[in-house]
Backbone:
């Protein structure tokens, strides 16, 4: 049985006062029956990890470099994130792919680095609106999966997030049948490439405008093992509603 996962991505949001949201979440969910992950901006990872130490809430990073250390001004490594208390790193988010030109091969290299550092890699894939309207969704997903997950990936520290680019921050979501189609396809692709034992361990998250109001129906979809949540993870009340829906699913 895969343990479900509610993951939050704060993106470039949050000053030190935002740490209070983590305390609020822990108070609301002292003993969750699903895994919890919040990925604050890098500036808050250390403080967030300190605030949540000894609780079930894991802290993660939003990106990292492929190298462990070196002359890479402005970058941080997976090892540094781990040293700051992070247990996971989001990789290949569409905003990284769009804003920084990150391609599948780089995401795969980062996945290797993150797993080598003993952290969980949350690898994001998803089609643009033009690709969906052009009937290209499954081809795009197939290519991103093949290119972004390295051949020697470890199952126990891999999570895949399906995030249609056009659903992120827009309030729009695919139909439940469309989500099911892509999640079933991802599971089948992972099974074909790595075998059933490996594929059955991988949690598949849906991401894109998940809210407390639509979480229940999304979590009832086949092969949805949780969510990667942007905007609604910034407020404890909203993320708490999503956690409760996941626990009930
Ligand atoms: C995201 O960016 O990962 C995301 C899912 O954002 P939102 O929930 O705000 O659509």
Residues:
């Amino acid at each position: 049985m895969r343990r479900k996962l509610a993951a939050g991505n704060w993106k470039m949001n949050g000053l030190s006062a935002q740490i209070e949201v983590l305390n609020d979440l822990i108070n609301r969910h002292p003993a969750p029956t699903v895994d919890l992950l919040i990925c604050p901006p890098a500036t808050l990872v250390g403080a967030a990890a300190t605030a949540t130490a000894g609780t079930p809430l894991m802290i993660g990073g939003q990106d990292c470099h492929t190298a462990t250390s070196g002359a890479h001004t402005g970058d941080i490594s997976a090892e540094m994130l781990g040293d700051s208390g992070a247990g996971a790193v989001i990789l290949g988010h569409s905003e990284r792919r769009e804003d920084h030109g990150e391609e599948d091969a780089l995401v795969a290299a980062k996945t290797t680095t993150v797993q080598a550092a003993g952290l969980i890699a949350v690898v994001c894939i998803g089609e643009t609106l033009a690709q969906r309207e052009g009937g290209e969704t499954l081809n795009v997903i197939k290519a991103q999966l093949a290119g972004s997950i390295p051949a020697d990936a470890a199952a126990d520290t891999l999570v895949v997030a399906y995030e249609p680019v056009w659903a992120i921050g827009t309030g729009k979501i695919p139909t439940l049948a469309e989500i099911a189609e892509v999640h079933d396809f991802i599971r089948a692709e992972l099974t074909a490439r790595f075998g059933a034992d490996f594929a059955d361990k991988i949690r598949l998250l849906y991401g894109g405008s998940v809210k407390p109001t639509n979480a229940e129906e999304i979590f009832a979809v086949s092969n949805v093992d949780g969510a990667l949540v942007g905007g609604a993870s910034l407020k404890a009340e909203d993320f708490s509603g999503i956690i409760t829906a996941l626990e009930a699913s």
User: Anything to note?
Assistant: The pocket of phosphoenolpyruvate is lined by residues 9, 163, 168-169, 207-210, 228-232 (CB under 6 Å). The CA atoms of residues 92 and 124 lie 5 Å apart.
